[in-house]
Design brief:
It holds the Pfam family HemolysinCabind. Keywords: Secreted, Signal. It is found in: Secreted. The chain is mainly β. It has two domains: 126 residues; 176 residues, no CATH class. The protein contains no helices and 28 strands. The strands form four sheets. A ten-stranded parallel β-sheet has the order 9-11-13-15-17-19-21-23-25-27, with no helix packed on it. The protein has a ten-stranded parallel β-sheet with strand order 10-12-14-16-18-20-22-24-26-28, with no helix packed on it. The chain is flat.
Length: 312
C-alpha cells in the first residue's frame, strides 16, 4: 500500500500555493505503482482544472503525477498525467495551485490526494489568503482562474489556460499554445506566441491572437479582434465589431452586426455576415462573401479577388 504523508502548504500572493504536498512510498519494490486519474483543464468546468506536478526524489525515480481534488465549492484541481513508478520515498511538489477568492476573503479548503491503488486517501488543509489582483504562471502548463472583479492573469511559458471570470480583466497567455476566456466584462486578451484559442465572452472586448495560427472569437458586444501574424480564424459573432486578420491567410467572419473587416496581407476569406459591413481584403488574392448591403473597399479582380453575394 502506498503511504502518504502530508505537509502544511505555504500560501503565497494571489492564493498561489507552492511547496511539498506529500511523500509517497510503496510498501515494497514489487508493489504495483499507484494508478492516477487524469483530469482536463477547462474554463467551463471550474470543479476540475489541471496544473503540473513534479515528482522528484532519489536517482532512478521517474517523473509522475498525482490527482489533487479540492473538496469545496471553490474551483481548483491539480492533476498530473502519468503514473509514478517509485520504489522509494519521493517528494511530490506542486507549483501554482490557484484558488480564486473574493478580495478580502480568507478560508481553509480540504485538498484530497487520491491514489486509486490501495486505500490511500489523505486530506491536508490549504490556507487561502486574501485574493490579489495579479496572478502569474510559470514556464509550465498553468491554469489561472480569475474571480469577481478586475484581474490580471499572465500565463508566461507553456500551454496555459486563463479564465477571466467576472470583471474587466487583462489576460496574457505568453509563449505556448494557450486557451483564454475573458468571461464577463470588458476584457483585454493577448494570446502571445503560439497557436492560441482566445475568446472574449460577453462585453466589448479587445482580443489579439499574437504570432501563430490562432482562433480568436468574440461574443456579444462590440469587439475588436486581431489575428496577428499567422493563418488565423476570427469570428466576432454578434455586435458592431472590428476585425483585423493581420499577415497570413486568414478567415475573418464579422457575424451579425455592422462590422468593419480587414483581412490584412495574404490570401484571405472575408465574411461580412448579416448587417451593413465595410470589408477590406488587403494585399493578396482575397475571397469576399458579402450581402448586397456591404461595402468593399479594395475589390480588385485583376489581383485575384473574388466576390460571392448572399442574401442579407
Amino acid at each position: 500500500m502506498p503511504h502518504l504523508r502530508t505537509d502544511r502548504i505555504p500560501a503565497a500572493a494571489a492564493a498561489v500555493l507552492v511547496g511539498a504536498l506529500a511523500v509517497a512510498a510503496p510498501a515494497g519494490a514489487a508493489e504495483p505503482a499507484p494508478t492516477v486519474t487524469l483530469g482536463q483543464a477547462s474554463c467551463n468546468s471550474p470543479d476540475e482544472v489541471t496544473l503540473p506536478l513534479i515528482l522528484g526524489g532519489p536517482p532512478g525515480v521517474d517523473p509522475g503525477t498525482f490527482r489533487i481534488a479540492l473538496r469545496s465549492g471553490n474551483p481548483a484541481l491539480v492533476v498530473p498525467t502519468r503514473t509514478p513508478t517509485v520504489d522509494r520515498v519521493s517528494t511530490l511538489n506542486v507549483f501554482n495551485l490557484l484558488l480564486p477568492t473574493v478580495a478580502g476573503q480568507r478560508g481553509v479548503a480540504d485538498v484530497t490526494i487520491a491514489v486509486a491503488h490501495g486505500a490511500a486517501e489523505t486530506r491536508l488543509p490549504v490556507t487561502v489568503r486574501k485574493g490579489y489582483a495579479t496572478m502569474t504562471g510559470t514556464d509550465r502548463a498553468d491554469v489561472l482562474l480569475g474571480g469577481p472583479g478586475p484581474q490580471t492573469l499572465r500565463g508566461r511559458g507553456g500551454p496555459d489556460t486563463l479564465c477571466g471570470g467576472d470583471g474587466d480583466d487583462v489576460l496574457d497567455g505568453g509563449d505556448g499554445d494557450d486557451t483564454i476566456d475573458g468571461g464577463r466584462g470588458l476584457d483585454r486578451a493577448d494570446g502571445g506566441t503560439g497557436d492560441d484559442a482566445v475568446h472574449g465572452g460577453t462585453g466589448p472586448d479587445t482580443l489579439d491572437g499574437g504570432p501563430g495560427a490562432d482562433r480568436v472569437t468574440g461574443d456579444t458586444g462590440g469587439d475588436h479582434l486581431s489575428g496577428g501574424e499567422g493563418d488565423d480564424y476570427l469570428n466576432a459573432h454578434t455586435g458592431d465589431d472590428r476585425l483585423d486578420g493581420g499577415p497570413g491567410a486568414d478567415s475573418v467572419d464579422g457575424g451579425d452586426g455592422n462590422d468593419r473587416l480587414d483581412g490584412g496581407p495574404g490570401d484571405d476569406w472575408v465574411y461580412g455576415g448579416r448587417g451593413d459591413d465595410v470589408d477590406t481584403g488587403g494585399p493578396g488574392g482575397d475571397d469576399f462573401v458579402t450581402t448586397y448591403n456591404d461595402i468593399l473597399t479594395d475589390y480588385r479582380p485583376a489581383e485575384g479577388d473574388t466576390r460571392h453575394r448572399v442574401a442579407g
